[in-house]
Amino acid sequence: MRRQILALALLAVCTGLPAAALAQAVSLLGEGGIFGAGSALVPVRHAPPVMQDAPDTDEGAGPSLFAGREGASLFAPGTPRAERMRMREGRNGLGHGPAGLRLSGTSAFFAASVRDLIARAEAGSKGYDAVQHGARIPPPRRPTEMSIAEIYAWIKATPRQPHAIGRYQFIPSTLRRLVNELGIDERTRFSPEVQDRLADLLLEEAGMGAFLAGSIDRRSFMNNLAKIWAGFPNSSGKSHYHGYAGNRATMTWAQFSAKIDSIFPG
């Protein structure tokens, strides 16, 4: 306790903040506080990644497949998610919530390259306007011409059919979760930019930031991607969801590995 009091006083001197304010912050962090070994300053919540080609369901996916890998972030290494989610921007309808997640530099290049690979495995020639081929009743217009609210309305009006949509084949439960997490207004058009932003959040959940930081290896990152996008094979050579609702890998493990090597040389 004496050590904590001394450290608190030192923080107050260095930061200029009142000691009472720092004491309140420490009390909010729990028994370990900022002085406890291994404790995080801000807890990080990892939403569970959801297979993009799964049958539509509103049920939760259970605990995160990638829990415990919050040490690196695709968006801002070292920045807690709670702090990132307070960021905002005022363009393209994305400023109606915590959507201020923009990539730059090498992170943006790598993310764009991986997104191109996902599109090859999932969307085919339709790209951003792709709709799962099993949908008997397609959307009334091209997905990129529709608002997110209109896509939700199409999903509600056409039950008992697959609804995977867009370049990254978002299923309804995943689409809603990502839109809510980024705080995107439902009136926003389902544009290529919006789809890319949603996919980037899935890439973070797959551990791409951790992979770039060296916290996980290439094989683990590839298997994580395969747990989200059924078109990718895992290290067994088959889709992680092979045979489930007709899913299969659209490329071999060797092809997948070669593509990842070309994106991340060395």
From TrEMBL:
Tagged with keyword Signal: yes
Which UniProt keywords are listed? Signal
Out of the domains of life, which is the source? Answer: Bacteria
- Tell me which positions the record assigns to the signal sequence: 1-23
> By its UniProt entry, which InterPro entries does this protein fall under?
Lysozyme-like_dom_sf
Its protein name is: Muramidase (Phage lysozyme)
